[in-house]
Write a structure and sequence with these properties.
Shape: globular
Number of strands: 10
Distance between the termini: 59 Å
Largest sheet: 10 strands, mixed
Strand order of the largest sheet: 1-9-10-8-2-7-3-4-5-6
Number of helices: 9
Structural class: alpha/beta
Helix content: 25-40%
Order of helices and strands: HHEHHHEHEHEEEHEHEEE
Amino acid sequence: MGDLPLPGAFVEHREFRIIPLEIRWISAAEWSIVALIVHRFRILISAVLLGKLRTREFASSDAWESFVQRFRRGQQPLPQAWADLFGPLRNGGVDDLVIVGQIGQSLDGRIATATGHSKYINCPAGIEHLHRLRALVDIVVIGVGTAVADDPQLTVRQVAGPQPARAVIDPRGRLGANARLFADDGVRRLLITAEGTRCTLPPGVEVVTLPAQDGNIAPSAIVASLTRRGMRRVLIEGGADTLSRFIAARCLDRLHITVSPVMLGAGGPGIELPPLERADQAHRMPVRVHMIEDDVLFDCDLSAQRVVLGVAKKST
């Protein structure tokens, strides 16, 4: 019978029609053709749309560590297995900066259950992906809500790579001095707070005071303050409210959304943005899709709408 043409060839034949089974019988020979067509479609989808990022299978710790070194030194070429996903984070397309956000959520758009439990919605490889992001950036930033609820360490523990600086956005000084992200482990630690706020902090924690309006600090002001301190690659790790503010302020270059095949039914929502009147007003962006074991990672390119934010004083 020979090779069947690619699925695109069938699209061009406008007279080709699929007739429901209720109308006519399909012979055994025709079923074999249908099976081959479906098979070709699945191969095409897997090859073009879904880049398989099977970290446990094809990449050793040494391979990842070598990638991190080449990434940070600006060496070319980057290993292709990692370059497709992480290559865009090396150099900014708008200015000298690269601001990337990440969020993990359920299929129905939840980041936690109704009781606030969130460990862990994403699969173990999805958690590894988050740690790889940390290893590639200069600083990890979270909001005080996430810091209070989860008390994260914000370290690179599950993969090889340097530890990033850590920062929390805490306009009212809610976070206690015993928070794990303030632990003295040789890494820079920053508290971003509103002017006039009194905070009791461990020794060595840098305090960044910025103007606040209605209890919120502008994302652009936060990024500008970090660039003055030499931070060129910034990861906005959460929570959902902080990430949503950065998206709405057009302060992200990339957004990584990891979707787990579970449904929580109710609970904390993911990204929430100002409402639109019409669906055709929504911003559409280039997206690349990767499989990370059971999770689906959407790598969204937001650079077309990102505002100019500045240049870091020094490269880290």
